[in-house]
Amino acid sequence: MNTSFYEPLGPGRYRALPATAGPWSADAQHGGPPSALAVRALELHDPAENMRTARVAVDILRPVPVSTVTLRTRTARPGKRVALVEAVMAADDQEVLHARAWRITCSGVTPVIARGGGAPAIPDSTGKPRFHGMHASGYLSAVDWRFVSGGFDQLGPCQAWARPRIPLLPGEEMSPMSRTLLIADSGSGLAAALDPRRFVFINVDLTVVLQRDPVGEWLLLDSLTTMGGTGTGLADTVLSDARGTVGTGVQTLLVAAR
What we know:
Number of helices: 4
Distance between the termini: 33 Å
Order of helices and strands: EEHEEEEHEEHHEEEEE
Shape: globular
């Protein structure tokens, strides 16, 4: 039974648990959990008062194994109004993921300019997610999915509410940005534009920008995938909470025939 995504092993070291496994293999992590863990490290590194994590960019260098991972962090650009911090995740003596976060000073005097209307209601239940050839007992089962339209087993745009069923680390509540990264990496899977039995469409990165922190445990992903016929695709996800839009997530896709 999954009780958390990771187990701490000491400063900067974590054991990935079965809940981190992605839909394609029990041996490779879904992009969400390691991205969320990297964000946690970034936010704990040299924290600054009156600044918030506004943007996180994650580059996935290679599949992240379901094994022990390490994280190291540094400040790339210190500042009082903006600051840039970086994290490197390694596993099996290889760097597997890079993450960079911009911190921006908080201000209560700027106006609110919202995008679109309110978010749709959260369905009571939409059943277990179905995904062609999926490994369902890992990450997919560790997240509560509520589909408004579309689904993992349907091609095209998708709207889905999601919340993690378990914590990132035992007994610890996730920050809003960490929870967002955990969920937002699913945008490309939700809005699959091609049959995964015939094509691969692998995201090599994830960039999330939040103009405000999402409130509550639920996050709405309104995802759309487009492709240019060159082997490159783009998964674009509008992120919302019950009050409305909070930001966006973008993933660059490698697209190829199987």
